[in-house]
Each structure stands twice: as structure tokens, then as C-alpha cells.
Amino acid sequence: MTETPAPALSRIQQKNRDLILDAALEVFSGAGFHGATIDQIARMAGLSKPNVLYYFGSKDEIHKALLTTLLDLWLAPMTRIDPKGDPMAEVLAYVQAKLLMSRDYPRESRLFAHEILQGAPHLTEVLGGGLRVIVEQTVTVLERWMDAGLLARVEPRHLIFSIWSMTQHYADFDTQVRAVLGEGRDPYAEAAVFLETLYRRLLTP
Predict the structure, then answer these.
(1) Nearest one of 54, 163, 67 to 107, comparing CA atoms
(2) The pTM is what?
């Protein structure tokens, strides 16, 4: 039996849904899943609790909607790595894309970090499925470049882990980074130069 597609949301409905997700992002990224409540999300969105529950049946449903959107966003730069491109340029472009995402989407990064620290209860299937597939596809490309002598040989999965941790650190530990650097310095501009130097030296054959 063919499922009937859900009716399209009206402009007001879409606006309210977006308000709820943005408010939930603020609450979840600060308090984590267990510390957040529907009441907090409703206040942040400027809506009533029943109104929030009209669009999302539970806190869990809101959280899953956010994480699904986040993973699509987070994985997009990896899917844009071109197997036919210049290997060093492709890797460095990926590093810079991940750094810019930390700069532009710090709440999303912290939300993801909260979920992972809790054992990823809402992401178990995705982490073992879609994420792993995309990572393994990227590993195949990296290994091909290394076999051809176009990149220095390193363990490709750990290379990817290092890029994730080095770039997302600036979002997840923003307060610490800015406290150490002091006022008047742009951590992302400085990190862009540092990380390009680091990975260029690491991967130059």
C-alpha cells in the first residue's frame, strides 16, 4: 500500500516549526538532551507548550529532527571531495570547510558533541550506517591517492578523525580558545593558517 504523503506546511506552520527548531538548538546545545525541557524550548521560541507539541510530539522528536539536519550539514563537505581533483587541494579544502562550519555553526557542533558524550543514543543507526559508508568512501579515495604517491601515507580514518577534532575544537571550546588567545585575535583566521601548514606538511610525499 502506498503511503499518503504528508500535507505541505503553510507559511505560518513552517515559520513556527523553524522557530521551534532554532529555539531547541539553543537549549539543547547549552543544556544537553537531559537538561533541556519542552517548557524551555517553548519560552525560547516565544510559543506556548501546547503549540510546540502540536508540531513535535515530544522532546525526543525535536532532538532527532535537529540531529538529522545536523548530520546532513556536517557530512556535506566530505561528499564534495572530488576523487579527480588535486589530492592536497581537496584535503585542505575539506579542512577549511570544516573549520568554517565550526565558526558559522557553533551551536550545532556543541549539540553533536553533547550527543556523542551521552553515547549517541539518538544516532546509533546513523553512526553505524550512513556516516560509516561516507567515511569509507572517502577512505578509498585517500588510499588511492596515497598508493599513487600523491599524498604521504597515514592511516586515513585517523586522518579524518584528526580533522574533525582539530576543527570542531574551536566551536566546542570557544570560551577556552578565546581566553587563551586574548582579545583582538581571530581564532578562526589563525587556525586556518595553522591547519593548512600542519596538514600540508603531514601529507606532502
Answers:
(1) 67
(2) 0.78
